[in-house]
Amino acid sequence: MATAFALKSLPTPQTDLAACREMLCCGSRSFYLASFLLPAPLRTSACCLYAFCRAADDAVDEGDEPLAALATLMRRLDAVYAGEPEDHSVDRALALIVVQHRLPRELLDALLEGFSWDASGRRYQTLSEVLDYSARVAGAVGILMSLLMGVRSPNALARAADLGAAMQLTNIARDVGEDARAGRLYLPLDWLREAGIDGEAFLARPEKNSAIASVTRRLVEEANTLYERADSGIAELPRNCRRGIYAARLLYAEIGNRLGELEFDSVSQRAIVGKSNKAALLLKTHAANTLSTRYLSAPLLPESAFLIEAVSAVDAESTGADNKHLKAFASSFYHRVLWMLDLFEAQDQRRGKTSSP
């Protein structure tokens, strides 16, 4: 489906980006930590993107009427892509980067579709169906991040989708018990049956045992395969972006390693990567510039193919004087906003010298 980009008026004040940055700080500690290894322009764009994703997730997950929240989010996206974002900081910030980086609407639609599956309590019969879900709630974000870095090669985007899927599988493996106690089940039902586990019985009484641990282990192994493939995509990123993305990859993969140390029990306890471990992992990010590209041309996950096709469609139509005019306008405005964010960061650093962390 063709995606049209327009920009009529984006009165984005300083407070919009400050609000986005605050959501990033509070919403995902691992992502926030890794983001400091990204160059300032990308860090700012990532804040804008993440803030909308976070706001959308919270609106669906924490509200009393998730389907109504999804309808509202779709309307807000309509306004963003019409160049007339609604009166929300994250919407105005998103509208800016949509034009600047030619972000396909289909990727954000996919994200909301994944949230709708959460809202409906959808179950997944096979690993492929879990990957369908992962492509929407995480693979789409991985591709969006690549676009923010100026990377649009189908092979590199396929590896970005791998990384997003790997992170989502890690999340699922880590949260088996927490999800079950909330009435949610993301593990492949056929894997549960193979392990002799009745899914509904497990939800009614989630308990740790060797059977559920074996299913969790399988999921971590699948994630590790995808992490290895994703490394080839990280090697294709701009040099000044690699360490930040590799940091996020290492931090998430370490959750799986921690699960292994806990004998894959994520029912009675939660795998946590401590501060000292995170610091040690960040020291390893220099290896991002020596990653192999041996899996760069590996077949893409079939479940992620529609995401990459959406980028190709946008690239095919993003020509002409009007588009160049919009990009020039957005670029000028964008760099002014970056200057303002850098000023805020400098102020925060000064305040930090007189306050405890």
Verbal overview:
By secondary structure, the chain is mainly α. It has helices at residues 14-27, 29-35, 40-62, 66-81, 89-101, 105-119, 127-148, 154-174, 176-181, 189-194, 199-204, 210-234, 239-261, 275-282, 305-317, 321-352. The longest helix has 32 residues, at 321-352.
Outline the fold blueprint.
Elements: H1 14-27, H2 29-35, H3 40-62, H4 66-81, H5 89-101, H6 105-119, H7 127-148, H8 154-174, H9 176-181, H10 189-194, H11 199-204, H12 210-234, H13 239-261, H14 275-282, H15 305-317, H16 321-352
Quickly describe the structure.
By secondary structure, the chain is mostly helical.
- Secondary-structure-derived class: mainly alpha
Roughly how many Å is the radius of gyration?
20 Å
- Give the N-to-C terminal Cα separation: 48 Å
Q: Which descriptor suits the 3D outline?
A: globular
Residue ranges: pLDDT <50 for 5 or more in a row?
7-13, 320-357
Which features does this protein show?
mainly alpha, 0% strand, 357 residues, 16 helices, disordered C terminus
